[in-house]
Amino acid sequence: MNHSDGEDFKVTDKRQSAKKGPHQKGPDDSKSTKSEKPDSVPLPDVNFSTFLFSLNTSALVHLGEVPEFSSGEIKKDLIIAQHTIDTLAMLQEKTVGNLDEDERGFLEHILYDLRMRYVKAIS
Fold first, then answer.
1. 103 lies in a domain?
2. Structurally, how many domains does the chain consist of?
3. Does 17 map to a domain?
4. Residue 19 pLDDT > 90, yes or no?
5. CA-CA distances (angstroms) from residue 43 to 46, 68, 113, 120?
6. What band does 24 get if pLDDT is binned at 50, 70 and 90?
7. What is the mean pLDDT of residues 37-54?
8. Is residue 43 included in any domain, yes or no?
9. What's the Cα-to-Cα distance from 120 to each of 12, 65, 106, 107, 115, rounded to whole Å?
């Protein structure tokens, strides 16, 4: 195809989302631009403690201590549980001197608890 023959072409986006500008709200953009389920629970702010809590919960799921959120099933995957515990230990090592007292104590508590649960799970 030769584009130098003087023919112009035009691309028209006919999607509904393309008809409004990037900063304009449409009639169905009530509160947020995030797609949320009507029954969803607002997530907590992201900070170091909530990040640790998330990793702790993941480890507990993989240790078979807490049911999976989506299915409600109890499943054990000790390899992933160990990996998550190792991730928390790496974070503890890499953040020495950079955590406040509460964060440091929380991380120590989580690691101790998960390690004890892991030992129990493999016994």
1. yes
2. 1
3. no
4. no
5. 8, 18, 25, 32
6. very low
7. 86
8. no
9. 62, 11, 21, 20, 9
Whether the Cβ atoms of residue 84 and residue 59 lie closer than 8 Å to each other: yes
pLDDT in tens, 85-109: 999 999 999 999 999 999 999 999 9
SS (H, E, C) the chain: CCCCCCCCCCCCCCCHHHHCCCCCCCCCCCCCCCCCCCCCCCCCCCCHHHHHHHHHHHHHHHCCCCCCCCCCCCCCCHHHHHHHHHHHHHHHHHCCCCCCHHHHHHHHHHHHHHHHHHHHHHC
**Size (the chain), residues:** 123
Q: Range of 72's domain?
A: 48-122
| pTM score above 0.70 | no
